[in-house]
Specification:
Length: about 190
């Protein structure tokens, strides 16, 4: 079984999410200071909690503002990738494929539509259960496909995702971006 993360793995939208979150925070709390690596891979609600722990007053609606900023710029970051599409078509015939993302379902499905990737046995987002680094999403993929961790490879890019993937006992392949993923998929 192969399990894929979405952001930073199947698509290169790390900057899209970072820009969206920064813009949303700047609107409500311009004095908030943080580096992208401090909140990388965390769901927006956890990013908000992190900034609050640093003493900043960040209202809950920043989550919706970030979503608005992200959706407004989606087409600048996410494109159909014919090489990735061909690999997924090929791998779909050999392995159960699943997707596990800390993004919201609406975003995940919009991206899958742009990528034309609908070959996944299961798709999980943070809307369905605990977010990464909790290993829940990966474990659910394995449960649904009746596959053991030793039969599973998880492709992840963020520290939070890698941490959760390691907790499953599956093989974890650290990915830098979608081009790196395409290179790695030649091995399967």
């Amino acid at each position: 079984m192969l399990i894929f993360d979405l952001d930073g793995t199947l698509i290169d939208c790390k900057n899209l999410h970072q820009q969206g979150f920064r813009s949303a925070v700047k609107e409500v709390c311009p004095q908030a200071k943080f580096e992208d690596f401090e909140v990388e891979g965390l769901p927006t609600t956890k990013k908000i909690e992190y900034l609050r722990s640093k003493g900043y007053i960040i209202p809950d609606y920043v989550d919706n503002l970030k979503k608005i900023h992200t959706n407004k710029n989606l087409d600048k970051y996410i494109f159909f990738n014919p090489d990735l599409y061909e690999h997924i078509q090929r791998l779909y015939k050999k392995y159960p494929l699943c997707l596990a993302s800390n993004s919201r379902s609406e975003f995940v499905f919009r991206c899958m539509n742009i990528l034309n990737l609908w070959h996944f046995a299961a798709v999980f987002s943070r809307d369905y259960g605990p977010a990464k680094p909790d290993p829940w999403m990966y474990n659910e993929c394995m449960r649904i496909c009746n596959v053991k961790p030793e039969q599973t490879v998880i492709f992840e890019d963020s520290p939070v995702g890698i941490e959760g993937a390691i907790k499953t006992g599956a093989k974890v392949v650290e990915i830098k971006d979608s081009n790196h993923l395409v290179e790695k998929l030649y091995e399967f």
